[in-house]
Amino acid sequence: MKKLLIAILVGIALGVFFFVVAMLADGACHCVKPTIVLFPYAGIALLDSWEYVSLPLMAIQFPLYATAIAKANLEIDFDAELRHSR
Prior knowledge:
Blueprint: H1 2-29, H2 33-38, H3 40-47, H4 51-85
Helix pairs in contact: 1-4, 3-4
């Protein structure tokens, strides 16, 4: 549970960091290409004129990635513990 919480917090921090990077890069080129590259799901929503969906997709992308990686890591750790206990 602790690893999962840490993963979610790291995902939120990465999302904020990449949002700031995309914001600065968008301002530099006056386009949305950096947003499309850093947040592909939000970029797809922007291209399809679903602006109301793009911000929630942008907000959950990295926490969702981090949670999936943490869950996979927890399962691998659990399998390793099962092998050592036999």
